[in-house]
Write a structure and sequence with these properties.
Distance between the termini: 85 Å
Membrane topology: Multi-pass membrane protein
Largest sheet: none
Number of domains: 1
Keywords: Membrane, Transmembrane, Transmembrane helix
Subcellular location: Membrane
GO cellular component, one term: membrane
Number of strands: 0
Order of helices and strands: HHHHHH
InterPro entries: DoxX
Number of helices: 6
């Protein structure tokens, strides 16, 4: 009913005769996988940029720009008032939008990182000075946000020279 095929003679493995690094050796198979990883990394980084842009534009800047009571209260507690609230809201919105513009994305990440350093210092200072009025619960948030911003600034750093060329032409 079933036929069993006779075992065939083993074949000797072939070895490449081309020089190392040529397309016919094992490095050629690493190319598509590496290209796929690079593409996946680019997509992940772009997704991170979009998420950060949404965070800065909606979750962070919008409450300041519409004078949401929680934002007003926070700025009043540290003694800065509504003027600083609006300025910081505009800076966050501009930085978030610039994260989506290829020519500006590295500079935007650097600028937002600087803004986060300032936010951390202000929150920590307010916590120390006004220990009872300010609980410092969000003091680590700026530091956490600096990690992906530093990654964006570093990986998109080639755009800085492009931006300088554009600025020099004007």
């Amino acid at each position: 009913m079933f036929e069993i095929a006779a075992p065939s003679a083993p074949t000797a493995p072939t070895t490449p005769t081309a020089p190392i690094g040529s397309p016919t050796t094992s490095t050629a198979s690493a190319g598509p996988r590496t290209g796929g990883r690079v593409r996946a990394a680019r997509i992940a980084l772009r997704t991170l940029q979009v998420l950060l842009a949404l965070f800065y534009g909606i979750a962070s800047a919008l409450p300041k720009l519409i004078a949401h009571p929680t934002a007003v209260e926070s700025f009043d507690r540290i003694g800065w008032g509504s003027g600083a609230m609006y300025i910081i809201g505009v800076l966050e919105l501009a930085g978030g939008m610039a994260l989506l513009i290829p020519l500006l994305q590295s500079v935007a990440a650097i600028a937002l990182s600087a803004l986060m350093v300032g936010a951390f210092i202000v929150q920590l200072t307010a916590f120390i000075v006004q220990l009872t009025a300010f609980d410092g619960q969000n003091a680590a948030t700026p530091l956490i946000l600096m990690v992906p911003l530093a990654l964006i600034a570093w990986t998109r750093r080639s755009h800085n020279s492009d931006l300088l060329r554009v600025l020099r032409r004007r």
